[in-house]
Amino acid sequence: MSVQISAIVPTSQPWPEIQPCLDGLFPQVRELDAELIVLDPHGQGLPPDAESRYPGIVHLTEPGASILRMRQAGMVAARGDVVALTEDHCRIPPGWLNRHLAAHGEHPECAAVGGPVINGCTERLMDWAIFLQNHALWFPPLPGGERRDLDRSNVSYKKRVLPSAPSPDGWDEPFLDEKLIERGERFWLDSGNVISHAQSLGPWGTLAIEFHVGRAVAGLQARNGMPRRRRLLRLVTSPLIAAVNLRTVLRVVLKRRVYPRRAMASVPLLVLISVFLAAGFLVGYATGPGASAKGLR
Q1: In a domain, 63, yes or no
Q2: What band does 225 get if pLDDT is binned at 50, 70 and 90?
Q3: Across residues 244-256, what is the average pLDDT?
Q4: Is 149 exposed, middle or buried (0-12, 13-18, 19+ CB in 10 A)?
Q5: How far is the C-alpha of 96 from the C-alpha of 28, rounded, in Å?
Q6: Does residue 255 share a domain with residue 179?
Q7: What is the pLDDT of residues 16-51, one digit of tens each?
Q8: What is the pTM of this model?
Q9: For the chain, what is the domain count?
């Protein structure tokens, strides 16, 4: 049976972390006769009554898998002509899935469709800082149209452009969009299809996860075919990589001036976050990913 659209939600956390996301998403899945796939590394992402609570849901478990690996495995397993992805801590508004499907129909030439992301945790400065670090480029208002980048929390792809098999540890998943752009694929931003990113990890949890992001990405790259000379170069320039990222985020934040006052007050914390990101890159290129990929959320 043909499926128009599949929705993929990986989670590293036990139930009920994913519940608010699924409660917003599932009615849309039913309305469109869509496919909903949840992936976790431990079998505890859904409640015991998941089949009666969310009839037809597909639950895939891969012991020890990272978010990167699970996201890729979901892309491969999906049966839909369009594959939408979000995160377990995102809040999905009514009509989100239908807007992704409609945008693909309106823009058949585009490989991917994305939308803006707002911050769902606005009280703590550290929550604003990490939000800006990862999502500043996609904070509304944004003009709709073609783009060269999309937010991983609010994105969908035509199945034809997705990998046919997941890579070991999902090591190349963070570079999917970059590879698609390099081969000439086009992206579209639907400026009205906004979701809320609601994740608060506390100061130390935030710094730790930024370190793990850097180490996981660098370590998995280094372990999967990166030439020794390039690995050494990346090791030496790790602080520069983080500095360039910081400069990009700061330029966006200071130029656009659309962020709330509390968000602007969090900007100095971006420097601290970048230090931990740089440390992650350094350790990743030097020693490999360790268990960092499994610590991502």
Answers
A1: yes
A2: confident
A3: 93
A4: middle
A5: 8
A6: no
A7: 999 999 999 999 999 999 999 999 999 999 999 999
A8: 0.95
A9: 2
